[in-house]
Amino acid sequence: MELSGSTALVTGSTSGIGREVALQLARAGAEVIVSGRSEERGAETVAAIEAEGGKARFVAVDLADLDSVGRLAEAAADVDVLVNNAGVFEFAPTGEQTVPSYDAMFQVNVRAPYFLTASIAPRMVERGRGSIVNISTMASEIGLAGASVYSATKAAVNSLTRTWAAEFGESGVRVNTVSPGPTLTSGASVEMVGPLGETTLLRRHAGVEEIAGAVVFLASPRAGYVTGANLPVDGGRLVA
Ligand SMILES: NC(=O)c1ccc[n+]([C@@H]2O[C@H](COP(=O)([O-])OP(=O)(O)OC[C@H]3O[C@@H](n4cnc5c(N)ncnc54)[C@H](OP(=O)(O)O)[C@@H]3O)[C@@H](O)[C@H]2O)c1
Question: Domain Ketoreductase, which positions (predicted)?
């Protein structure tokens, strides 16, 4: 129970990787704020945490809307752990990229975590402790045809991690990135992650628990001297 007595906000924890991160943080003793747009899936994640004896509550948010982001930041003002996980991934050849899809990816993947962190991190700085984990992707470091906008948003996230680690480090607040490889979730079907998994050194896609384990490690005191890092959890794809 290395996180007992602490609180955590996980964006996009109504499904997929974020849901599993919320479950694992709660198992480690954290009280978790589950968030997303879906009240129904939010309630289901909270119920799953409570069924294991953990503590959680749901705060609805639309991360494409800055007012909504502001309300989430107020509701989660004093968390010890912030996991910027929610993400939109829409793929298109560059010549066919639409403006609404471009805007949605930058709003949810970059603008929302930026302003959420801008509200929450200064409170961590005041208290002299806190851990922020940003979820990126292996596609931020490799050329993946059709993923131009998505990869660019996550490359921005990688950059934010480095800047924030520099800004908040002297106050004891750590900021790191986890870059997952292909991971089976409700947003990433087996048709999508299966062939990508074959391109990794491990020749398979990941399960959500393998990504969440890395996130919880970086959030925890076990990673107390780790900041500014980008941890690939991608079956070795970056070195393949
Ligand atoms: N799966 C992969 O292969 C993979 C690989 C590399 C990186 N990643 C990254 O890992 C993260 C999670 O991916 P995933 O596969 O677990 O995705 P997922 O199953 O599609 O879940 C996405 C989560 O983000 C939330 N979300 C999306 N748009 C939102 C919005 N406008 N406002 C609030 N919440 C929103 C969703 O909640 P609601 O539906 O309730 O709004 C949901 O909880 C993303 O950042 C993704 O880029 C995934």
Answer: 6-198
